[in-house]
Records
---
Amino acid sequence: MNEIALSAIIRNLLEGAAWTLGLSLTAFVLGGIAGLILLFARIAKNPLPRRLAQAYIEVFQGTPLLMQLFIIFFGGSLIGLEVSPWIAAALGLTLFTSAYLGEIWRGCVESVPKGQWEASASLALTHVEQMRHVILPQALRIAIAPTVGFSVQVVKGTAVTSIIGFVELTKTGSMLANATFQPFLVFGLVALGYFALCYPLSAYSRVLERKIHGSRAH
Amino acid sequence: MSYQFDFVAVFDYSSVLLAGTAHTLLLTTVGAVAGLGIGILGAVSRAWQIKPFDRIFAVYVELIRNTPFLIQLFFIYFGLPSLGFRLDEWQAAILAVIINLGAYTTEIVRAGIEATPRGQIEAAESLAMTRPQIFRHVVLPPALAKVWPAICSQMVIVMLGTSVCSQIAAEELTFAANFIQSRNFRAFETYFIVTVIYFVLAVAVRQLLTQAGLRLLGRRAR
């Protein structure tokens, strides 16, 4: 009888959860940097970077994350790069995250009232100065709540990387379910793990949203 | 030696691709219709605080929105049989899609319902309309129209998300891709073409839903 104790299951799942957390943080930080570049391309005066950024966003929002991961995983080996599941997962999630964050942040910049642009232009500020001193500080305030809200999607997105063999919480769960023949318990615990990671973020984003709406009412 | 791309090798299996596409669309359609139904029920329970359903839906929404779809699918397909609740891969996939989309549409539609001006409900009450009548004729159509773009986006996201149903061997489009690349050993070409198919589907589904919204809900559903 190959009985695996509950404590061993939980210890393994916690280890998997650490990888999920690590991957989420990596994708969120790198995706945030790439998303910022996309944002500037998307609101540039020149139409070429605008179109390119828009196409990038449409492609990544219009195809499954799983397919993006497969293409990176198998495409990399075609051009002679040995792509490990970790690299493919981090790169795929970073690209996915950047597309969504770029689009969310563009919405925030565009929701800054037109009058702010006009007022700063009438003070003879250059485009860069307008951005730096007037538009971005206000857009940032609006952006915090939806950005925290989106981080939940990043954490949940990491589950898909288990399919290309990256051993995080979901993959650990699958392996444990096969080893213990207790899928109900194991996947229940896995779900609980994701909930513990995601719920605080969801709740915090709601609090932030309420705060912004509250201060706007005055 | 450089790699020779061979995209034609994928189209030798075009009937497999076609069947997979049809199954993905079917899964999405059933999920979308039933999910929207659950969403409307959940939204009205939450917005009008119909006890005890408002609490039940609140817990349901939080549980589903804070866990990955893949885990919901695994839980239903692998976990539920130990409670004596055995589903085949299609039943599990459809159930998972419905449950997942239902949670998101509950939140989306609720926002629409809560944006109904009080005066409209009072006006309807003064016409002696019953509560179900008010909901059916006064509250729901403009609420749906207001949030229709968000509903369309969510349905597209769910359609793309069904690609993980291949993991429980539901033979949808991604399963077809896995099958084809295991036969022709052209993994990159196969996944590339299937990704293009998904992209076309996403654009088409969004167009179709937007048009349907305009038809059924009027000009406000933009």
Note: Chain A touches chain B through 37 residues (CB under 8 Å).
---
Amino acid sequence: MYEKAKFLPAGDKALIVEFGDSISPEINKKIRNMYIAIEKSQLEGIIEMVPTYRSLLVSYNPLKIKYNDLCQALREFEDNLTDTDSEPAKVVEIPTIYGGEYGPDIEFVAEHNNISIDEVIEIHSSRNYLIYMLGFTPGFPYLGGMSEKIETPRLKTPRTKIPAGTVGIAGKQTGIYPIDSPGGWQLIGRTPVKLYDPFADPPVLLNSGDYLRFVPIDETEYKSILKQIEENKYEVKITSLDKE
Amino acid sequence: MSSIKIIKPGLFTTIQDSGRMGFQRYGMPVAGAMDNFSFRIANILVGNDQYEAVLETTFMGPTIEIGFDGFIAITGANMSPKLNGKDIKMWRSIQVNKGDQLTLSGSSEGLRSYIAFGGGLAVPEIMDSKSTYVRGSLGGFKGRKLQEGDEIPIDTSKSKAEPGKYISPGYIPRYSKTNVVRVVLGPQDDHFPSEAIDTFLNSEYNITAEADGMGYRLEGPKLTHIKGPDIISDGIVFGSVQVPGHGSPIVMMADRQTTGGYTKIATVIWADLPTMAQMGPGDSIRFQSVSIEEAQEILEQYEQTIDDIKYRVENSNIIQEETKVYNVTINRL
């Protein structure tokens, strides 16, 4: 992490507040705190913010606030950032059916790592993953913190269509495809939960800075949740992150 | 409700407004009109809110059957618009009647035309916007480019359009195949050796055939990096100039993704993006660096020009050709 954030112009209507040049939970926490501080300040001229791994893109209206004034205001926020988050990070539970037709590559992931399929499931579902950022496609979460015991390289030839909700592994990363898309990840399971629904408010289930946890379910539960979602009766389980 | 019917869709015609702002943190691209100037002026000419949705058509325009009595305005690229076979003028309000046929053909100058309808296009807003995001099959009309037979409702009851509204010729941009486009260096200009920055600012770059709503790949002298082309992904804006490993700059446009992992040498200033949007494959660009302070002054002038146009349109009812030429910096240098 830098001692002081860098302010980098991204044209005449946005700037990037860069906190470091690595991927770490500490930097992510700082970004989250900064995001909340700016949002709470209701500083005039801020249009929207995009948190990423190690920076925050701030779009603004220069007719309301000029670059230098904005930098000054942001520096003040930075200097007064506190860790006393009024909103503790949430943990979003993602019910996931592993293996079978839902996760055709789970066997390969097990073999590649010399462990059993059950162990893959156990390892994958036993920790909270920090959502560093959302990008690539609407609602796609960039997650951190997967165990190296289940690291598996991408497929040599990407699949042309992976159904929405599919959970995959690519190298050290794990993630969920929010919409049907092509991709080269090793597919290990699927969640019936919708990560992205353009007609919902908000349209995307996850937020950067929060955590998610995969909860193994069987096919009966999968179908039951799917039905509840169709009937608009399903509520995603969200808990607070235990403060260590 | 009144409507228009697409007889021929043209090459790529979509519904666009100013885009889907406020949802990029979820990974949702902004989309929206590529040429912010032409889009807003088209609306102003028919008395709409200047950010109302319009039709954006690229390279080859549509043929449309008008299903209402009211007004339209056409701005942007010149696609030789005709109403019932007769030439009509651009950059002014045009009275239309039910049953009229509007035809746009290939663009002779510029790349994208905008058609505004008095009262606006009555498609639902998704995430506060009517813009079509084609890759995400979202917004606009069924989330896609328009097709033959599509009928799009027009809310003529809301129309405040009046006949004879026009903008002075001096405000009308002239499109050229060679343009100077101004940039603010950064956010990652420090990832390039000074020779690469010099090359970038002193060379001619041609727009390749790999140019669409997401971005324009340019061809010209290659740019080298100090420590390689990759960065930890960060935010992208309309106009970001990213330079991947192949060393050729890519200018990110309206349909860009929200984040990316390539170094960005510079960002095209807002007031020059309409110029970029009207350029296409084969056209050439020279980049010129301005400071962030200069860029924001230019933006103020740009917005002032649009305010002036709006004021004049709203406060003139005299149908006459104005001949006075104003000095404006929009779209040309």
Note: Chain B touches chain A through 42 residues (CB under 8 Å).
